[in-house]
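## retry 2 of 3
previous attempt timed out at serialization; input unchanged, resubmitting
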Amino acid sequence: MQRKNVVGTSLLLSSLLIASSAPVWAGGKIKIDDTRWISFGAGIRTSVASVGDGAPNGTSRANNFNLENMRLYISGQATKDFKFYFGTDKMWGEYGVLDAIVQYEPAKKFNVWMGRMLTPADRIEMNGPFYGLTWGQYSVPLYPSDNDAKHGANGVAGTYGRDDGVTAWGSLGKFQYAIGVFDGYSGKANQTDAPLFATRMAYNFLNKESNPGYYTSSTYYGKAGKILTLAISAQHQGDGYGTATQSGSFTGYAIDGLFEKPLMNGAAVTIEGEYKSFDISTAAVTPTFSMFDGSAYFASFAYLIGNQTGSGKYQPYVRYTSNNPSVGDSSSLTEVGVNYVISGQNLKLNLDLTSGDASASGVKGIDHNAVLFGMQFQI
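## retry succeeded, writing output
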């Protein structure tokens, strides 16, 4: 998701300059007049991984080159209170609309977004892939709008954590909230056209986290000062699971926490954790949309080494995940890695080793080990 306003390519900007009335450059934006402006950005995440026993023959190592994300960002302002945001990403091998939001932002205490956006959820889903602490943060079960798209369920419950709806969000002192209503699961089980209700409530015990809208980050590399934030998120949809003849509801909640403390010489300690519980209430049928039922948790620890080496700093970390479904086998995954942080979340490299059988679906997979090298760039 977009965190920074920037100028796009010269060809696109030239076209916009011709089409607008006397725009000027200001602060990395195209300034049309004293009120209106438009800005552009982009983000790329790409990786190569060697996965044990991952080749088609089941015994050789697989070598996977992945363009994980390719995002284009456009944002702008029409009046002081009315803004918009539009973003695209690589989806199922093609490119499509990721976000399309009309943003009414009159004050810190109360704002309204309407369109296609992130459903309020736990921290790792509000981070998006670009603002996580670890490269493989999606190893616990995801809420429907994210679980659906990542596992090829035809987008009937959302796309990459997004859904069409409306969200009211804001902050009262150190308390932050987001409450939304969305289309949710729209498959055959939802004969009543029941909406999805989603919320996230967070309290900042130390410094207040500062992110666009109700988004989050899992590390600030010590630059945000002392952070201790606890949050609870919850989602519910009646007729959000099952089949047309045997439907049931989905209810899920998550409790997540983030602690970060800057140390001397630019070093920082970061601790992140989460507990998540999902419940699907339906008869024993084979639904058209698969959701996790049970509990899961993860914990991460990272240490940003203060002394800069070359262009950046090293941030070694470890993360453990445990998924425990109500029916079926439990699974776990350990990730040990290091980020090489050159320019915060705008430019970093990652090298990690994972071992285990957990995944974002919550279903026990093949126990494997993998070595991954990833690169992340934003502007």
